[in-house]
Amino acid sequence: MSAASAGPAEPGLPEPPPAALEIFGDRLSDAVRYAELLAETGVRRGLIGPREVPRLWERHLLNCAVLSEAVPEDVTVCDVGSGAGLPGIPLALVRPDLRITLLEPLLRRTNFLQEVVELLGLDQVTVVRGRAEEVLSTLTPVHVVTARAVAPLDRLAGWGVPLLRPYGEMLAIKGDTAAEELKNARGALGKLGVVRSSVLQVGAGLVDPPSTLVRVEVGESPGGVRFAAKRAKAARRGARRSH
């Protein structure tokens, strides 16, 4: 199957580039359908700007899908501030081994996400409406948190790191600002229980330029001692209600 044979492109939406077939493989037709939904429903509902449609593949779908290179096998993932599903939906298409939660506070966005999940048959994906700080007591801690274009790193870490299991990691797509944001956020990251942080690139040879990520890894107490105590208290309260 060639990239061009995956399906007709909508007006303004370019054909998938050759790298799309290499990245999405036998899920390319689903990736094309997702791109069409973004170009049609996504624009109509104000989830993406119409000027983004001509560069949906390179700037959005492929740029997000290559995040899979940095995610371990068979883990749980929470995509914080998922918006229109980036990077969570492309990641789910290329990595069926992952169990992914798309976390998004706005109803019009979660409605769109649920429609996409059902249409594409992404059984391993769950859509949750809410903010990260609101779901601490109800969302099972995950191995990996992902995010893209949500907030500056120090603020993003304050939302995402407490959702992690002990020794989990957060992967944030940051682009050219990655190194500077990491430098400015080191103090805040330390208070959140981050033990290692780095900047890495993924997708070399597939996307140009490669996607730049910030990886932050936590120790035994994700979110710091305060969040660990808060989570333990919420767990005890839930256990009492279940009896």
List the topology elements.
Layout: H1 18-24, H2 28-44, H3 56-65, E1 76-80, H4 88-94, E2 99-104, H5 107-120, E3 125-129, E4 142-148, H6 153-160, E5 164-173, H7 178-191, E6 194-202, E7 211-218, H8 224-242
Parallel strand pairs: 1-2, 1-4, 2-3, 4-5
Antiparallel strand pairs: 5-7, 6-7
Say what oligomer this is. Answer: single chain
Question: What fraction strand?
Answer: 15-25%
Number of DSSP E strands: 7
Would you identify the CATH architecture? 3-Layer(aba) Sandwich
Number of domains: 1
| Count of separate DSSP helical elements | 8
Mean pLDDT: 90
Beginning-to-end CA distance, first to last residue: 55 Å
- Morphology: globular
Helix content: 25-40%
**Radius of gyration using CA atoms only:** 18 Å
Written account of the structure:
The chain is α/β, with parallel strands linked by helices and 243 residues long. The chain has a single domain, classed as 3-Layer(aba) Sandwich (Rossmann fold), CATH 3.40.50. 40% of the residues lie in helices and 21% in strands. It has eight helices and seven strands; from the N terminus they run H-H-H-E-H-E-H-E-E-H-E-H-E-E-H. The chain has a seven-stranded mixed β-sheet with strand order 3-2-1-4-5-7-6, sandwiched between helices. Strand 6 and strand 7 form a beta hairpin. Helix 3 packs across helix 4 and helix 6 crosses helix 7. The longest helix has 19 residues. The protein is globular and about 45 Å long.
